User: Fold this.
Amino acid sequence: MTYWHEGPLASFDTETTGVDVERDRLVTAALVTQDSPGAPVSRRGWAADPGVPIPAGATAVHGLTDAWVAAHGRPPGWCWRRSHGRWRRPRGWEYRWW
Assistant:
């Protein structure tokens, strides 16, 4: 039996305009994967312009501002299309829930 840390690893993180899952919007997303211990790490990140002002409270948490997303963000649909293929399970990966 292998331990969880001996197999492939993946981490997914987001920053949003708040914590309300029905109202707030995605600002950034990141996916980091590693096939095995010592293997190269793959990093992917996307910045979306949420189309609404980022509240001061959210900026205080993650540091992302309206000016930053205006300069670096893409439309949310572009981010989804670009990232969707990256989220699929790579061949040979096994999901374990415990």
In short: The beta strands are 9-16, 26-34, 41-47. The longest strand covers residues 26-34.
